[in-house]
Amino acid sequence: xxxxxxxxxxxxxxxxxxxxxxxxWRLTPAELxxxxxxxxxxxxxxxxxxDELLAAYPDRNGELDxxxx
Length: 69
Prior knowledge:
Layout: H1 6-16, H2 21-26, H3 29-35, H4 47-56
């Protein structure tokens, strides 16, 4: 077992990207990831960033922000 979902990867490459089978099989995994959009999003929220947000926007002990109303 390789851990790859080959049917899903093949559907994405052949149908989603419109690749020919020989084009799909010549791709490296890194090239396929790039074509599928990997690396274009934001990194997941890490602990350090969460701590920054908690410091910037602390809880208010039950006070609700009514939006100025």
